[in-house]
Automatic annotation (TrEMBL):
Organism: Raineyella antarctica
EC number(s) on file: 1.8.4.12
GO annotation (BP), single: protein repair
Domain MsrB: 18-142
Xref: Gene3D superfamilies: Peptide methionine sulfoxide reductase
GO cellular component: cytoplasm
Full protein name: peptide-methionine (R)-S-oxide reductase
Catalytic activity: L-methionyl-[protein] + [thioredoxin]-disulfide + H2O = L-methionyl-(R)-S-oxide-[protein] + [thioredoxin]-dithiol
PROSITE patterns cross-referenced by the UniProt entry: MSRB
Pfam families (alphabetical): SelR
Amino acid sequence: MDHTPDRSLPTPALQLSDDEWRDRLSPAEYHVLREAGTELPFSGEYETLTAEGIYCCRACGAELFRSTEKFDAHCGWPSFFTPLAEDRVTYIVDESLGMRRTEVRCANCGSHLGHVFEGEGFDTPTDLRYCINSISLTFDPEGSAR
């Protein structure tokens, strides 16, 4: 698996103008998904959800994560140890807030999802924690049958 960040933004398949994104998303969704904001910890609707299904990008509907790869990291945001498939997300170097992190974006539309961290000692197959904003996702319980 290659989760090496790129310094440039890849060109997503779905490209809309800022006005089109504003029409499609609520102000809070727009802030997180299009302006790389972060929702408050322990405030998201999917932080503690344990149902089986697929988590999709709220902006474009692309399938991103399976519930079987979700784990409780006690960090205040939904956490996954791997995406549904590596081509579903892209990685960007994020040097904001005086630190170097790896930002995770939807490969289909380029929307900000959260960040990925490694080497934190979680007992997962990848030792990765995809820390994802709930507001960046929708949940499809029917996806569990796929």
